Amino acid sequence: xxxxxxxxxxxxxxxxxxxxxxxxxxxxxxxxxxxxxxxxxxxxxxxxxxxxxxxxxxxxxxxxxxxxxxxxxxxxxxxxxxxxxxxxxxxxxxxxxxxxxxxxxxxxxxxxxxxxxxxxxxxxxxxxxxxxxxxxxxxxxxxxxxxxxxxxxxxxxxxxxxxxxxxxxxxxxxxxxxxxxxxxxxxxxxxxxxxxxxxxxxxxxxxxxxxxxxxxxxxxxxxxxxxxxxxxxxxxxxxxxxxxxxxxxxxxxxxxxxxxxxxxxxxxxxxxxxxxxxxxxxxxxxxxxxxxxxxxxxxxxxxxxxxxxxxxxxxxxxxxxxxxxxxxxxxxxxxxxxxxxxxxxxxxxxxxxxxxxxxxxxxxxxxxxxxxxxxxxxxxxxxxxxxxxxxxxxxxxxxxxxxxxxxxxxxxxxxxxxxxxxxxxxxxxxxxxxxxxxxxxxxxxxxxxxxxxxxxxxxxxxxxxxxxxxxxxxxxxxxxxxxxxxxxxxxxxxxxxxxxxxxxxxxxxxxxxxxxxxxxxxxxxxxxxxxxxxxxxxxxxxxxxxxxxxxxxxxxxxxxxxxxxxxxxxxxxxxxxxxxxxxxxxxxxxxxxxxxxxxxxxxxxxxxxxxxxxxxxxxxxxxxxxxxxxxxxxxxxxxxxxxxxxxxxxxxxxxxxxxxxxxxxxxxxxxxxxxxxxxxxxxxxxxxxxxxxxxxxxxxxxxxxxxxxxxxxxxxxxxxxxxxxxxxxxxxxxxxxxxxxxxxxxxxxxxxxxxxxxxxxxxxxxxxxxxxxxxxxxxxxxxxxxxxxxxxxxxxxxxxxxxxxxxxxxxxxxxxxxxxxxxxxxxxxxxxxxxxxxxxxxxxxxxxxxxxxxx
Length: 855
Fold this sequence. Notes:
Elements: H1 9-12, E1 64-65, E2 80-81, H2 106-111, E3 118-120, E4 123-127, E5 132-143, E6 146-156, E7 161-172, E8 175-185, E9 190-200, E10 209-219, E11 226-234, E12 243-253, E13 257-261, E14 264-267, E15 270-274, E16 277-281, E17 287-295, E18 299-310, E19 314-323, E20 327-336, E21 346-354, E22 376-387, E23 396-405, H3 410-414, H4 416-421, E24 428-435, E25 438-445, E26 454-469, E27 476-489, H5 492-510, H6 518-531, E28 535-546, E29 549-551, E30 555-572, E31 580-592, E32 594-603, E33 608-626, E34 662-677, E35 680-696, E36 707-716, E37 719-727, E38 737-748, E39 751-761, E40 769-779, E41 784-793, E42 798-810, E43 813-823, E44 828-838
Antiparallel strand pairs: 1-2, 3-5, 4-5, 5-6, 6-7, 7-8, 8-9, 9-10, 10-11, 11-12, 12-13, 12-14, 13-16, 14-15, 17-18, 17-44, 18-19, 19-20, 20-21, 21-22, 22-23, 23-24, 24-25, 25-26, 26-27, 27-28, 28-30, 29-30, 30-31, 31-33, 32-33, 33-34, 34-35, 35-36, 36-37, 37-38, 38-39, 39-40, 40-41, 41-42, ...
């Protein structure tokens, strides 16, 4: 269950005297009480129990019996109603002092304000002096939308309340509530119950929540809060549940939160956790969570998080983390989810650590200089989108991405998951105006952390046009225009290192007794050039037209023609050979498809029910003529080294400063085998083979690129194979190889494994690697499971990661104990994490997170 919903909503309405609704037609099976002690629920009245009635006047229509509600193991007695649907009170004679049997419906007419009250029983008595009426045996009290069954019912005219006792069953809107007694005051609309047992479900729940309360009290007319005493809750429908929460006092605020006073969590009847106070918001991400464990660079740790609602669309989370080797840390997260289908898109985070061991390295394997780190370490993050004029979503908005850190190792030490995803967070503010034909943006990227090398854009204005038709010519246009002021800053640490090396070398060259060489002077010039930071103002504009057409209804041809201009001014550092350059691009895309059906191929064991083979040869030619900027010019938007082929569509090529002349022909063929599955068609085997032919290579002196082969095979739900490779089959100038393979397989129902392998050899920029990762999960029985993960680098024979976890199913809980060992080549890391996850009630879960700090 994702959240605690309002306990007692159905109960609250159980005695509501609102008119205009008939009772639901069926009652569900009676749930067991969730408390540890065994209890006996009395059965509902027998189906053949006939209420005793007082004869009606001669001119009155006969009383009718409606069929008992269906769907229950113990049918309930039928109400007595008039054929017109009106209350039977007008059909009954005035009550007498004592009567051996009959209906108390006449009380409604006599008292005036009980026109919708109807009570039946095997026998009734009424005392006119005291205004007390009592019905005994198979009692049924009917309201317009609720029915209450009990052994005895008593109405007190002076207090104007109905009191029912003995095997009380309250049936309303398809839900059955069991208790020992209940009192409803018709004046105050207050409901008071004893020993109530039932369950409820929420629209967002994964299952019901069963509860019991010794005493519950609420007003049904204005449901501001529900008060309960000695209340217990569990997600398990069992007389002896594996777990439950019990509290002395509980206060329920509808659609907001549940407040527990002195709550205790029981597992197997044994108290395992106690809090003096717990406010549990009715949201899956709120409430209290904690993660205990051990890491070699943290010591023993306990991460604590408590979330609460803030306003109608924000969540505030508090963090207090204890680490035996690092000290105390804490912070807050403010999450906004106003738009985007209730998904988060805005957040503010602040976290401070009083680090007692700042020199202790984190998980990364690298040469670290931590000598200047102090114990005060922190992060401040602000990510948000503000729509203008707001608050509704619009095409004009401002994006904020601001990240201030105390030092470059903070993420690595305290949030390793974020460090692996984004080791160097960005800082920018962008104003965006969207249009159906394109987008106008104004971006300011600034430097908030001087220990990172980064570029600034103060500002960058970009107008991008999407691909769109040119009138009714059949041609299309797309392009962009960008103007910005750019600077690239080296890190403060790197600058200090360079200046130190320069100073030492200058001292050596200035010493007449030192042994110096020409290489020393060359090195000095190179070190000084590295301290020079790049900077310029740039204007870039590129526009392209396309004209797709078909020959013979099978050959698709799209010629392209584009022109552009790039200018540089205010240049810091080495000057380019040309501060203004023109771009001319011409190209053509050609492809066609052919297919053939093989309906007779049937291989059920491999998931084949007929095959459709689709083959698509294609060719993309791209010619770019660009004036050279020279090798000495310091570029900012430059082409990053990669094992993949570059984009040859100019508007999608973002490395503007590296738009060098090229002449490239990309050839390839795609093959797909499709098969019937269910009511549709699914891929069974796909293959894509391609390579580049260089008439003019912008990077190296190549005639051909590697030959790429991408392959995917998914014949069955429990088998999938993905392969990707590139081989220097046509050219040996840059003869690196790469293989990427991943296999997932379940050979038997109780065992599943996946194995992956990445091989990279002889790449000009990246280190050789032969990395193998292996995952397994073994289903031992219905209660136990075992999982493992290993990552091994065969290039230097290093077992980088070992992870072992044992899992225990505790019906409502899922327990796990995990061990993580990492070899960071010189710095080993060990971690132990214990997890106890409550399946249907994550608001009090202890989440399984074998990478502590990832939250």
